[in-house]
């Protein structure tokens, strides 16, 4: 895209000529070139753990339970011996690659609006490898193979192995129903590091949500196949009004089956997710659901049954965790959590996570499929990602100057960054309006710093 000096239409061809924004993954704020010509980015917002983008680790913050991804989330990690955690790679986004639009299920909330039929224009195996070379050259630390359902691609193992050989950490997002013991072994042998399996409620509710009877049992068999193959596996659970009451029971059931990692997503209003806003939680219900996750995490910890719990997609969670710590732990704990979350950096749209769809279009996040920054068939990914002649990308990376309403003056702005811009757009037709799913109370967001400066914590 050539910069003509004029503000360009940030949504060419977009219905209703709206800006489009989203929340949940990206965050690389381009500032300038360094002496070695490598781009630098604003702040110290390290990329997330690569198993789904920038997440808030409840278990780390409330129970000090370390997990592999936490070095990427909360620490500079300059001294890490893991390649994907080193500082250089922290400046690059996690990339979600929607390898296909085809899926064997038809889920109500699918952000990719996947279908049972294969869509035209899908990147071929050769083009996929070219994309992975491109991402490796740019220094991308992690690629998340997603869909649709990525396991419908017969070349998935070949692509996973290619990514691993290129030095990119390959991880998987799947509904789990197509994972056999053989495919789990093959994926593990190819170098896959993690499989996140989506389950959205107990069997009856999950199957209704996913459009197929038996989907829950098939996903559980897929999880068991991954465990038998020695492949790290975890739950992905999108919380809605329909399944919030199942949350603790699903965790208990899957923990008994051997899972210890549980990632809870807030509904973002992309794809078919925008069509089911009426079953989303109210802000008050959302607050209680997050409180349930916090209480549950601490209860497991108190019993000596450590589980890793994470929250994704609503960065009001960051402010709530500080308030929760103040109420249930201590002011010093609230201060520590706040400082950690400042490093995590809040909503990452357009910065720390990027999306490449099945046709090669680059998006600000996987949830925002309506707007493309460019196509990797035409330009390298890095050139597209750093092209701030795009006004939407540029303003998103400097969103603090554009946020409106309560988000503009929020005490938790540095750890939230306005929450979901996609939800704001979908509900208010304005990408800089307040996130309609912010559930923090007025007395929590008003005023100056939300924590007292207690000084450095004493050494152990």
UniProtKB/TrEMBL annotation:
Q: Which InterPro entries match?
A: 4Fe4S-binding_SPASM_dom, Aldolase_TIM, Elp3/MiaA/NifB-like_rSAM, Pseudo_SAM_Halo, Radical_SAM_PqqE_MftC-like, rSAM, rSAM_sf
Which Gene3D superfamilies does the record cross-reference, listed alphabetically? Aldolase class I (3.20.20.70)
Q: Which SUPFAM superfamilies would you find in this protein's record?
A: Radical SAM enzymes
Q: Kindly give the PROSITE patterns that the UniProt entry links to this protein.
A: RADICAL_SAM
Keyword Manganese tagged: no
Residues annotated as signal peptide: none
State the Pfam families in the record. Answer: Radical_SAM, SPASM
Q: Which UniProt keywords apply?
A: Iron, Iron-sulfur, Metal-binding, S-adenosyl-L-methionine
Q: Which residues form a coiled coil?
A: none
Q: Which domain of life is it from?
A: Archaea
A Gene Ontology annotation in the biological process aspect, one of them, is:
heme biosynthetic process
Instruction: State a single Gene Ontology molecular function.
Output: catalytic activity
Q: What name does the UniProt record give this protein?
A: Pseudo-rSAM protein/SPASM domain protein
User: What organism is this sequence from?
Assistant: Halorientalis regularis
């Amino acid at each position: 895209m050539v910069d003509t000096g004029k503000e360009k239409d940030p949504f060419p061809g977009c219905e209703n000529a709206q800006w489009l924004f989203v929340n949940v993954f990206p965050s690389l704020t381009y500032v300038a070139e360094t002496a070695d010509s490598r781009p630098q980015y604003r702040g110290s917002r390290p990329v997330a753990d690569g198993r789904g983008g920038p997440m808030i680790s409840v278990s780390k913050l409330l129970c000090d339970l370390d997990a592999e991804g936490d070095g990427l989330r909360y620490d500079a990690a300059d001294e890490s011996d893991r390649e994907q955690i080193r500082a250089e790679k922290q400046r690059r986004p996690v990339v979600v690659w929607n390898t296909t639009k085809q899926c064997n299920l038809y889920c109500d909330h699918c952000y990719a609006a996947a279908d049972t039929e294969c869509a035209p224009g899908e990147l071929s195996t050769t083009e996929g490898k070219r994309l992975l070379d491109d991402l490796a050259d740019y220094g991308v630390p992690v690629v998340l193979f997603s869909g649709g359902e990525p396991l419908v691609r017969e070349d998935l193992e070949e692509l996973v192995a290619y990514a691993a050989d290129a030095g990119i950490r390959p991880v998987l997002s799947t509904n789990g129903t197509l994972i056999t013991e053989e495919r789990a072994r093959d994926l593990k042998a190819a170098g896959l590091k993690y499989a996140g399996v989506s389950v959205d409620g107990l069997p009856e509710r999950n199957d209704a949500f996913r459009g197929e009877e038996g989907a829950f049992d098939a996903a559980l068999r897929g999880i068991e196949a991954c465990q038998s193959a020695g492949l790290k596996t975890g739950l992905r659970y999108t919380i809605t009004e329909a399944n919030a009451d199942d949350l603790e029971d699903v965790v208990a059931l899957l923990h008994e089956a051997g899972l210890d990692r549980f990632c809870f997503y807030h509904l973002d209003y992309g794809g078919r997710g925008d069509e089911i806003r009426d079953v989303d939680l109210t802000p008050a219900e959302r607050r209680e659901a997050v409180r349930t996750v916090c209480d549950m995490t601490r209860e497991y910890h108190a019993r000596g049954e450590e589980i890793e719990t994470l929250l994704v997609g609503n960065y009001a969670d960051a402010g709530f965790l500080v308030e929760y710590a103040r109420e249930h732990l201590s002011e010093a704990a609230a201060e520590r959590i706040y400082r950690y979350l400042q490093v995590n950096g809040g909503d990452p749209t357009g910065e720390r996570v990027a999306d490449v769809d099945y046709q090669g279009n680059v998006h600000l996040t996987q949830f925002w499929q309506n707007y493309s920054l460019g196509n990797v068939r035409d330009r390298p990914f890095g050139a597209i990602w750093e092209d701030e002649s795009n006004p939407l990308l540029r303003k998103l990376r400097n969103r603090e100057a554009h946020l409106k309403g309560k988000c503009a003056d929020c005490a938790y702005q540095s750890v939230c960054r306005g929450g979901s811009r996609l939800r704001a757009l979908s509900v208010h037709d304005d990408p800089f309006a307040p996130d309609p799913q912010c559930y923090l109370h007025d007395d929590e967001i008003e005023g100056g710093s939300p924590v007292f400066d207690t000084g450095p914590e004493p050494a152990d």
